[in-house]
Specification:
With 224 residues, this protein is an all-alpha fold. It has one domain (2-213). 69% of the residues lie in helices and 0% in strands. The protein has 9 helices and no strands. The protein has helices spanning 2-32, 57-70, 78-103, 108-120, 124-127, 129-155, 171-174, 178-191, 193-213. α2 runs antiparallel to α6 (129-155) and α4 runs parallel beside α9 (193-213). The chain starts with a helix and ends in an 11-residue tail after the last helix.
């Protein structure tokens, strides 16, 4: 039964993961060819660019939610699912502020904040477990290719980098050896904060859209 569930989840996230990979590749091409803002942003963090995968949970959250609800794997309570999704988002924002506060002088609290941002992504699972699991799996599938790109970007041009947001780092990390810089600027944020973001953002849009579409209908099952 566990194997069957894993296969089902793999099928569910396969197309979104491939689309996300295509967007990542497009973003790399755009930055290497110096496309203008707001299409891309080569600054550290790369925030606000229209071509980016951070916005995709807005689309794929509802996609997962509607597919799961149609298969009888909706939440026991749409209201509770929405509440826990927003609680997860709030927790992510608050712990993100802690992360930003500690970033100027990185310490163990910086790492704690990153892992708290990941844990925030588990809060929506309380209200709708299968949707949270789908978003967690999708988040991991989305971020692993980014880690590969960041590795090559940081190594590019003899270690000087490609000049993209994939190799741009905060000033306090710039002098670190490449392996350490990659760990702190790539591995830790991508596998903690960004996965948490994927889940909470996708859960908000997914739970709200599913509640509207299936209003008054019971879509839950024992395996939700």
């Amino acid at each position: 039964m566990a194997d069957a569930n894993r296969v089902h989840m793999a099928r569910l996230i396969a197309i979104p993961a491939l689309i996300t990979l295509a967007v990542t590749i497009l973003r790399v091409v755009g930055e290497l060819h110096h496309w203008p803002r707001p299409w891309v942003n080569s600054a550290a963090g790369g925030g606000g660019a229209l071509i980016g995968i951070a916005w995709l949970p807005i689309v794929f959250g509802p996609y997962f939610a509607l597919r799961l609800a149609a298969a009888g794997r909706g939440p026991e309570s749409a209201r509770q699912a929405i509440i826990f999704a927003f609680l997860g988002f709030l927790a992510w924002i608050l712990t993100g502020k802690l992360f930003q506060h500690t970033l100027h002088h990185p310490s163990v609290m910086t790492l704690v904040a990153l892992f708290l941002m990941l844990l925030a992504g588990f809060i929506p699972l309380i209200g709708w477990r299968s949707l949270g699991q789908a978003l967690l799996n999708y988040g991991l599938a989305a971020r692993i290719p980014v880690l590969v790109v960041m590795r090559f970007a940081m190594m590019g041009n003899g270690g000087a980098g490609w000049g993209t947001h994939y190799d741009a780092v905060a000033p306090q990390l710039a002098a670190l050896p490449l392996p350490t810089r990659y760990l702190y600027a790539a591995v830790l944020p991508q596998l903690t904060a960004w996965i948490g973001w994927t889940v909470v953002l996708g859960a908000i849009f997914g739970t709200v859209v599913a509640a509207i579409v299936y209003r008054g209908k019971r879509t839950a099952s024992a395996g939700s």
